[in-house]
Design goal:
155 residues, 1 helix, globular, Jelly Rolls, mainly beta
Length: 155
């Protein structure tokens, strides 16, 4: 009897710990054609939410090279829900300073900046969502931006 109780208790603890772990429900990337982000090129990500209970974090990882000429990157995000609702938000993110460049990969010339798009975000409904990113920099072409990666994490 004591052995059965111990085994049940361990199984219950393991199930609770597994249920509380953050889980990546979507990852994808958008690669720019000429190692630069043209102001007319929109980066779009489609993802599905299967459980509208719980909270989600949405992260972007901007992958860029030393060709990126500015300290900041300005862009807009548009999140479209299955019922047609759109949520808009503007971002002005520091990619580098004179003293610091965010290193991503040791063996390449790429750098990265992880950006939190939304923390503890709740989705109203299950279904297909679309995130569209639009370059809001003042020049037509923003050199050095190679790709953007999206990660949606449920916790």
């Amino acid at each position: 009897m004591n052995h059965y109780f111990r085994l049940s208790f361990i199984t219950l603890i393991a199930a609770l710990l597994t249920a509380c772990q953050p889980e990546a429900v979507h990852t994808s990337s958008y690669t720019f054609k000429r190692s630069g982000w043209n102001s007319f090129e929109k980066a779009a990500f489609d993802f599905t939410i299967d459980q509208n209970r719980g909270e989600y974090d949405l992260y972007l990882d901007i992958i860029y090279t030393s060709d990126y000429p500015r300290e900041y990157l300005t862009f807009a995000s548009q999140l479209q829900s299955p019922d047609g609702e759109e949520r808009l938000r503007n971002f002005h993110e520091r990619l580098r300073t004179k003293d610091e460049i965010y290193k991503a990969y040791e063996n390449t010339e790429e750098f990265n900046k992880k950006i939190l798009l939304g923390k503890d975000y709740t989705f109203k409904e299950k279904g297909s969502y679309k995130l569209i990113l639009e370059n809001r920099m003042s020049k037509m072409q923003t050199p050095g931006i190679r790709r953007i990666e999206l990660e949606v994490i449920r916790h």
